[in-house]
Amino acid sequence: MSAVLAFIPSPAESVWHLGPVPLRAYAFCILAGIALAVWLTDRRWRARGGLPGQVSDIALWAVPFGIVGGRLYHVVSSPEAYFGEGGDPVAALYIWNGGLGIWGAVALGALGAWFGCRAVGARFSSYADALAPGLLLAQAVGRFGNWFNQELYGRPTTLPWALEIDPAHREPGFEDVATYHPTFLYEALWNVGAAVLLIWAQRRFRLGRGRVFLAYVVVYCAGRVWIEALRIDPAEQVLGLRLNIWTCLVVGLAALVAFVVSARRHPGVEDSVLVPGRAPAAEGPAAGGTADQADGAAAPAPAEESGGRDTASRDVR
Questions:
Q1: For 221-226, what is the mean pLDDT?
Q2: Cα separation of 89 and 83, whole Å?
Q3: pLDDT of 298
Q4: DSSP 3-state assignment of 242?
Q5: What's the whole-number mean pLDDT along residues 292-315?
Q6: Is the CB of residue 64 less than 8 Å from the CB of residue 280?
Q7: What Cα–Cα distance (Å) separates residue 134 from each residue in 126, 164, 182?
């Protein structure tokens, strides 16, 4: 390949040791993403009338469920390393060695959030809407863990923003190629842009009843399809396409249909974020400020519609 004018260097280290304790860059990226998502969701939640502390309480359910779901999806979608020839089934439990799948994380994380919402008396659809932009930002931050690990990059390229990969981390057949598409950066930028779009759309169109979260699924899937098509790491193939591409197409289309159906059935904005009779009603604007003061928070519902929340894993697939 010809020399490039510039490139993005890869970090020399992704794990540091504090005595016998390994400190993994990917773990810190995941934790930072979770903290950012909880912070933004809390602001948006309280601006809609939610109570302080509810988002954190719900997150205590959603995060462990999401980690387990992400691991399950990774193992099911990449079975050869565990159940193929020479594989080690017990290694499927070693979450610290890497492997989280975003779709499993979202699916099981949603189940955990549903349990958490029931426990605190919150509406699940309202929580999902409050969470969506923060979830995108968490995914954006988490992708930088791939940069530290020099993994899940795209096809070879000589573009000025190409990512340099050390020989030890290059895929078989590409040993002599130094620079590749930085898919971690593409997805991070796409997710940040999508988060801004969702915040704007919710404020502009007063989206509610779970439609902000459905829009998140549609927009994320649209970006993930073309980014996934650039990647060259081994993956399960179905009819010539990577499994994650098929997943995005199916899940994204289903979310789009659900969005349209919801908009037709419930053209109004979201009800109160709290379930009547399950939690005390907030008095006046929540501690986070009014809807106009919080980033992306939808305006309170009109009166006639008012009804009274491995960290050491190597990659997120």
A1: 98
A2: 6
A3: 41
A4: strand
A5: 41
A6: no
A7: 14, 30, 23
